[in-house]
Write a structure and sequence with these properties.
Strand order of the largest sheet: 2-1-5-4-3
Helix content: 10-25%
Largest sheet: 5 strands, antiparallel
Order of helices and strands: EEHHEEEEEEEEHEEEEEH
Strand content: 35-45%
Number of strands: 15
Length: about 240
């Protein structure tokens, strides 16, 4: 335990983040930016809020098992163990209401480190063979070629296909790194398009967008910062 980074995030009774320690910021990485003051529910899509609420409810029940108060959180490049515990009123900051502590630990962190690690070259990013998306109570593995475009949804992603939209638990930036760059291009900070499904480029009010070959011919915006690079790539 001496060498383990233990993160701590405190929530008030309204599920808003009161504070987090430096270890939590290190473990969460870019996700920790702007976390203080944010609602925990707003950080998760509607499909995951029920799971989070069950975890917090278990933390308030003294008869709950340790497993009911814990869950695994998958982040790009690491898996965290999260444990929730409710502090008695008056033990934490605030107006005397109950404070919930979220304890974060790296699931893959070794118990002890004998010496400083020797730097090694970064491993190549594994390409995605399948896109994991949620459907009903399970996970469906989509062929990436079926994705028409991908849209950022907070820390997660919505995958749009000809058959409908699906929730993916990976952030858009992680998908961009692992999808085939010959076909998938970032058109905007919130969008990636599959060029195999792009059927036209339109300009509206001085802005460009891709018209996608899908029901309703959805339009995907192209940011001004990326427009020139995309024009050169498509010989426009």
């Amino acid at each position: 335990m001496q060498n383990m980074d233990v993160g701590l995030v405190l929530l008030d009774a309204g599920r808003r983040v009161l504070a987090l320690n430096p270890a939590a910021a290190r473990l969460l990485g870019p996700r920790a930016v702007g976390l203080v003051g944010a609602s925990l529910h707003d950080l998760h899509p509607p499909s995951h809020r029920a799971k989070v609420e069950l975890l917090l409810a278990a933390a308030q029940d003294p008869t709950s098992s340790a497993s009911a108060c814990s869950m695994m959180v998958a982040l790009p490049g690491r898996v965290l163990v999260l444990k929730a515990s409710t502090l008695t009123p008056g033990d934490g900051p605030g107006d005397g209401g109950a404070v919930t502590a979220l304890i974060l630990m790296d699931a893959a962190k070794p118990a002890a480190v004998a010496a400083a690690p020797v730097p090694t070259p970064a491993a190549p990013v594994e390409p995605l063979v399948k896109l994991p998306v949620e459907k009903g109570q399970g996970v469906v593995l989509l062929d990436p070629s079926d994705a028409v475009y991908l849209q950022a949804d907070g820390h997660y992603t919505t995958v749009h296909t000809a058959e409908g939209a699906f929730f993916c638990g990976l952030p858009l930036s992680a998908l961009e790194e692992r999808l085939d760059p010959r076909h998938f291009v970032r058109t905007h900070r919130g969008y990636i398009v599959n060029l195999r499904h792009a059927q036209a480029v339109e300009r509206r009010d001085g802005r460009s967008c891709f018209v996608m070959a899908a029901p309703g011919a959805p339009r995907v915006p192209v940011s001004r910062a990326r427009a020139d690079a995309l024009k050169k790539r498509l010989a426009l």
